[in-house]
Amino acid sequence: MADMNNTIWAKLCRETKGLLDDKFTRDSGIDMIWTRCAKTNKTVGFPVFEAMLREVAALKGMDLFQLESLVVENAKVKQSGTKAQNVKFYEVPKPKTTKGDQIDLASMTNTGR
């Protein structure tokens, strides 16, 4: 199971429709809950993530089950970044022999260009 860091937590909170409101704000709520639950850790596991969701539910005055349903239905975290492209590697042709098994200098330096 992958751990969660503060950046992923903030992105999840920002991109979940209906999660941010007057009680749970973008500016202070996201970071305050992370600091309160994660303490000095840079990454957290699933149990701490559940504790953060309980904090958000208490702050918003919701039941934990309602908040989990909101997150599951509306969390649409978008991946952004570079994507790998198909790369066709150039293959150097093998030198051709000109006289039987002998290879001359001209055929060795011919790269097919």
Automatic annotation (TrEMBL):
It comes from the Eukaryota. InterPro entries: EF-hand-dom_pair, TPP/p25. GO terms for molecular function: tubulin binding. One of its GO terms (biological process) is microtubule polymerization. Belongs to the TPPP family. This is Uncharacterized protein. It comes from Pelagomonas calceolata.
